[in-house]
Amino acid sequence: MSLTSEGGHGAVPTGAEIPVEPRPAASRRDWPLYEVFVRGKRGLNHVHVGSLHAPDDEMAVHAARDVYTRRNEGVSIWVVKAADITASSPDEKDPLFAPSGDKVYRHPTFYEIPEDVPHM
Fold it and tell me: Dihedral sign, CA of 27, 30, 32, 33?
């Protein structure tokens, strides 16, 4: 490798052999946060069981399996990047859900069930 002095900045490498400093490996604190959902038995809903950090989606599934299903509790695991979740705030409950309160036709008590309909 040859060096030259350019613009008074001292020795500067020239040619194709410019050394590149290695980037430090990302620490675990820099890994994205994932929310973990596990379905306990077939037919049941997935339930939020916790959070974890992982470098990518595949490792998040493996880590979730190791951490949250150690005793064969689950049959299915979902992992979702926390940054990809959009949620309402509990403080917004009244303005968000109030419009459905005045729509009585959405409540099953609005309808009369015929006597010959079983299991209702």
Answer: positive
pTM across the whole model: 0.58
Q: Domain range for residue 56? A: 27-110
DSSP structure string for 54-107: -SSHHHHHHHHHHHH-TTS--SEEEEEEGGG-----GGGHHHHHGGGGG-GGGS
60 inside domain = yes
Residue 61 in any domain: the answer is yes
Q: How many domains does the chain have?
A: 1
pLDDT along the chain (120 residues), means of 10: 50 57 68 94 86 96 92 89 91 72 66 76
Residue 36 in contact with residue 46, Cβ under 8 Å? no
DSSP helix/strand/coil, 32: coil
Written as six digits, the tokens of 103 are: 């729509």
CATH number for the domain spanning 103: value is 3.10.20.520
